[in-house]
Amino acid sequence: MESYALLLGSTLSAGTVLALAALGLLINERAGIVNLGAEGMMLCAALAGFATVVHTGNPWLGFAAAMAAGAALAALLGLLVIWLGTNQYATGLALSLFGVGFSAFAGIGYVQAKLPELPQYALPWLGDIPLLGAALFRQHPLVYLTMALTAGLVWFLYRTRAGLVLRAVGESPESAHALGYPVRRIRLLAVVVGGALCGLAGGYIATVYTPLWVEGMVAGRGWIALALTTFATWRPVRVLLGAYLFGGVTMLQFHLQATGVQVASQLLSMLPYVATIVVLALISRNPVWIRANMPASLGKPFHPG
């Protein structure tokens, strides 16, 4: 039972990384912008967050630095694709490659660095419940904030005027422009906010999830988060549940190894990526269903007349 409780707790932590990044990408795509640069943005943000905590000892400043790094790279992406009209897919891939290379170069001096002792968190009384207390109620505050963020995003998208405008921009930017809304500025703001959330996911990886810095430590989570938005049909609650599903698959490899299952570690490490491919293959069999849920202007440039 204790091993299953640990698996549940680690699933929540691993899922938080994917949920934060995928929620950020969902905001981008709801505005009609495809961001393929999430992997590179998360790596640069992870380095920024880790370096900030090393020098200041304050993990919350590390999160702020990670969000700022993600937002800055996202702003660059937004300026290129929204104002200069560059191809969204090519620009995102270029940004991802840049982030991978830049983080590897700039992070050389932090490979051996160690973070200061970080505080342990537990909800009063609930954290003392046998088994489930350690799994559910001794998580980092960001785990619970991610759940709250999901609920807040549902409210924003479907219960507020601003959320309606954002979705309108993603569905028909021409119509939104005709009604007087600044489509390009709305898209840029959505891209920057989404980039900040991707940055927060990167900062969480480097300072909480695996508190160290190594080259390429995001390990494809940016791409999994991108797939997760499609898997969740652009719905925040489904994003959160899907993130926990993929997080559970990721942590299952360690659980199986700990219980003595005789399977090659390389095969177990493939599990989350195989799951991503299988899910996308299953979803792609019904393109009509995807088109019914996908923002109509996703990936399409907009040039105000």
UniProtKB/TrEMBL annotation:
It comes from the Bacteria. It is a multi-pass membrane protein. InterPro entries: ABC_transp_permease. It is found in: Cell membrane. Coiled coil: none annotated. The chain crosses the membrane at residues 6-26, 33-54, 60-85, 92-113, 141-158, 188-206, 212-232, 239-257, 263-283. Keywords: Cell membrane, Membrane, Transmembrane, Transmembrane helix. This is ABC transporter permease. The lineage of its organism: Bacteria, Pseudomonadati, Pseudomonadota, Betaproteobacteria, Burkholderiales.
